[in-house]
Amino acid sequence: MPTIIFFDKKKKIYNNPISIKELIKDYNKKIYHICIAAFINNNIKDLNHLIIEDSTVKFITIYDPESIFIIRNSCLQLLTYAIKKLWIDSKIAEGNITKNGFFCDIELKKFLTKSDIITIENKMKKILKNGYDIKRKKIQVKKAIELFTVIKESYKVKILKNISKKDKKINLYYHESYFDIALSPQVPNIQFCNHFKIQKISGAYWKGNKQNKMLQRISVTAWESNKKLQQFLQKIIFLKKRDHRKINKRLNLYHIQKESPGMVFWHNNGFIIYKELKTFIRLKLKKYFYEEVHTPIIINQSMWEKSGHLDYYKESMFTTSSENRKYCLKPMNCPAHVQIFNRKLVSYKNLPIRLSEFGCCHRNESSGSLHGLLRIRSFTQDDAHIFCSIDQIQSEINNCIKMMFDVYNIFKFKKINVNFSTRPKNRIGNDLIWDQAENDLKSVLNSNNINYHHNIGEGAFYGPKIEFTLQDSLDRLWQCGTIQLDFYLPQRLNANYIDKNNKKKHPVIIHRAILGSIERFIGILLEEYAGKLPTWLSPVQVVLLTVHDKNSKYAYSLEKKLIQLNVRTKCDTRNENISTKIKEHIVCYTPYIIIIGDKEEYSSTITVRTRLGKNIKNICFNNFINALIKEITTYSNTGLEV
Ligand SMILES: [Zn+2]
Questions:
Q1: Is 294 designated active site?
Q2: ipTM more than 0.85?
Q3: Which of 205, 389, 537, 618 has the most CB atoms within 10 Å of its CB?
Q4: Is residue 311 flagged as an active site residue?
Q5: Which of this chain's residues are annotated to bind Zn(2+) (predicted)?
Q6: Smallest Cα–Cα separation from 353: which of 488, 510, 514?
């Protein structure tokens, strides 16, 4: 006689065990068609689940956030069902749910192409028309192994054999006669899986391990309603337009070629952006009292052994050798900065020492994960290491945070998210130091009125950290800045200073980066601004276009003035139609196009066309220059104010 307490606190006693399906009908028939599962004592169960004991119940409808996982999980089996119907010899390996849908890895002799996407989608839609109920059977692992062995699903057999308790029971879900192991409960009827689209087919190693066989991965987006699916597909189109690799083609910023995967060949236009960002950061380094250093890219392996990086980072490090000595390309700059610190005897009076570097680092990311500027193997970190005493942590962190916001605020991201990660279970250093460091970090965050997310236990084993994630206009998150305390590296690399009592002490190191990698940050900016970079970062800031040949002399005189003021200017005096010339330069997102015809020349004025399509007519050239210089020097991204 189970007593059921519903989510609205209503209570009812049933004489016999009751399935969730029956329970919904009894509770409120009207919601039956939108219910797909339920929380029974806080565990998600499908509608076939039989309630035999006293339980609290909350129904899950397609409008609840939990529904999407259940729908995607069911749709995943719809996909594999369709695959098996199309290619009987295929073997289903494993799938998983992703942020926008799911993927499934399969083994198939046939190499799937784009045209197969439509074939698979059509098959899924055809199956959907059967409108069947999804059934579940609970069986022992050993029984399941037998079943999958009979149908030659070798990957499923491997997965099941990894479950140590063979008498444990697992759920098999049935789509008509086709069955599979499921990640979670499934929907009651296949009709709930109506809104999907296959996005791509790619290669993937079984279990992500290069030693294993290469399989074919089918990635699908799936949603609870057609509206949600269409919204997502629209967003994809929007994102594609903003893809920095696409914008790059217009702006001619850089290229990457197969002989140097994940490494950037900067063209003049791109290198201008790179240099401007460096100059901007250098100004801030000066303001916040940093020294700038530069250290080698190739350093002997022994140093990476001493620093401990070789143990943790070996897979990601490029190595080389010369005269029987092994070297590594630095994946980070920290040990090199400690070498500079260690070169002289440091007194407590010299602390803090703030060493910054635009450090060229290399990390051996897998070739499959490389993505334009956003994921590369060779990058420039705007890195710094602050060597300080424990009682200086608070003021130094305060300095770092102020500098972070000083930099980020220029770019006007929608939001800056801050995460504060504290001591993990396994750590070095005594608890007193951790207490003080964490309290210092916390009080700095509070005194700066920063809302932060507390990640308890997520800090590194060598110290707590603060991470800064930029939220762009499309609500994508980009983790860029970090402030990481380190009690460990000074010990490993024997960094010391002499304290007030003439005793040797290890300093604390604060690792901090603001933009992260300059290359990646440029990729982020290109996408955030959709190519229309603020004028101070634009490779070409002003283009002068002549209407007639005879206006060339006047145009060149204006160009000369602009160049003298360090405004990046181009002059287009070609004998082309003016509207053709305008169109060509609009494509490159040039902030200001100046049109010079007879009228302008006689009145010593100019007509300015902004890249947003605004025309400013008959403006005095000097007024334009003053407004432009103000816009550039204040790093404005709101455009010209005249
Ligand atoms: Zn570091």
A1: no
A2: yes
A3: 537
A4: no
A5: 334, 385, 511
A6: 510
